[in-house]
Amino acid sequence: MGVPALVMLAVGLWGLDRGGMWRDEAVSLQVGRRTVPQIWLLLHDVDAVHGLYYLLVHAVLAVRPGEVALRLPSVCAAAATAALVAALGIRLSRPRVGLWAGLLYAVAPMAGHYAQEGRSYALVAAGATWATLLFVRAVHRGSARSWAAYGAVLGLTCWLHEFAVLVLCAHAGTLAPARVGGRVWRRWACAAGGVVVSLVPMAVVSRGQAAQVAWLRRPTAATAEGLVRGFLGPSGGVYAVCLGLALAGAAGLVGRRGEITLAGVALPLTVVPPAVLMLASQASPLFVDRYVLYALSGAPLLVAAGAERVAGVAGRLRRSGRPGRCFLPQPRNDRSRGPNAARVDGRPEKRPSPPSRTLSRSPLVTLAGVLAVALAFLHQLPLLRADRDPGARPDDLGAVSRVVARELGPGDAVVFLPAHARNVALAYPGAFRGARDVALGEGAAGSGTLYGREAGAREVLRRMARLDRVWVVADPDLLAGRWIPRNRTERAELAVLRRYFTGRQEVLRGGMAVRLYVREPMKPLPAPAPARVG
């Protein structure tokens, strides 16, 4: 278990300081820097599903603030997950299967990506994999204490992200083909019920915050194919080999009655949570691959199980192909027969010498599997290297902040379009030191919001009427007119900029535009109409 954890740790620490954060990481950083009462106030409005994670980040940043510290919990969690995957393989099969599975997880580009993400998903994966290991132990031991530990770990994991509750569906999918007894089902149901009941408060609150995921779309067949490739390896050669081995590994789904097999754990864990969430998302879109990152833990177990099955078949073929090496089993401890009792044509029977170490047990097979994983790593190394580039994320707020620090001077006015573009100023406040936020009414921390509350459209127009020049940090698609904001204040800001100002210079960095607008001569803004009384 130690080797996969060390490999995952090395992969996670490689290039950890990218010099920039994307928008979701920036939210983690700026929320983690708030006080606990301010975080609690925020959770009443948005991001209740990430509340426990924000409190953890708050504790980490209190020790050492910064982007690297923000990502370290994810690196450690990914290393723990690789070790737990190996532990599952060892418990349900044999040590080399655990070693192969743990290493496969460690070199998977998807695991490496989220190991370097300052969000909760790597921690959820560690918790779900740990809960799966405790689940296997509870089924084998049957004690109330083991089931309680399983429920506690999974319940805590669900408070890191509520969609981890779908692990329960995967574990039910393990029990069914194993044909376990009613006692196991009852104890699992009690533990599962405790997890669900503990999650009810979060589910109620997050239901009221569903507008946060209104941008999601229904998953399609292409979405499912992309997830499978992410689990088994994005590059073509690795994907084809891993898919074939995974199918071979899935053949061992059903064992003896009451027996949990490696495939019986790995296949439901890989397939059931994503499938359930995709089906539910046909009615109300909720699916994003990172929400089911924990299902990745089952894929390397399936591949390793398939490799073990192939090694076993190869070993049997090798033995059967040797002359004189295929024998019927001899009777053991037959005290009625002496060493020369059995005779053929009056001569003593010659017993064959014991066969040499079989191929399936040879350490060379273990080494061959490790070398195959190393080859897969080298094949996917360009993908892993490209993922260390900040440009591989949806945006790069660090690059935007460097442009702002270079272009804006003390006292310059700035407008953020849409309002969530203010995230860059909250994550990198030093770049905006001395600048005036034209539209801000109340700060983010004090208002219990992610990006602050903006003043009303009338007040923002009054403030813009005094400006001769203003810097705009915006979504370039918004400035190009490819979409229209729903917020009334944002629409008013955009209309004023287009009608009374002219864009003079623009810098595009990190998926954002930083543009200077200057008022056109002879085009003063009309005074806002007085508010109605009565």
TrEMBL record:
InterPro entries: LipidA_mod_glycosyltrf_83 (IPR050297), RgtA/B/C-like (IPR038731)
Main location: membrane
Localization (cell): Cell membrane
UniProt keyword Zinc present: no
Signal peptide: none
Lipid bilayer topology: Multi-pass membrane protein
Keyword terms, alphabetized: Cell membrane, Glycosyltransferase, Lipoprotein, Membrane, Transferase, Transmembrane, Transmembrane helix
Source species, domain of life: Bacteria
Pfam families cross-referenced by the UniProt entry: PMT_2
Residue ranges constituting the Glycosyltransferase RgtA/B/C/D-like domain according to the UniProt record: 65-203
Residue ranges of the TM segments: 68-90, 97-115, 121-140, 147-173, 185-205, 226-254, 260-279, 291-311
Chain residue ranges for the region called Disordered: 322-360
Protein name listed in UniProt: Lipoprotein
Organism: Streptomyces incarnatus
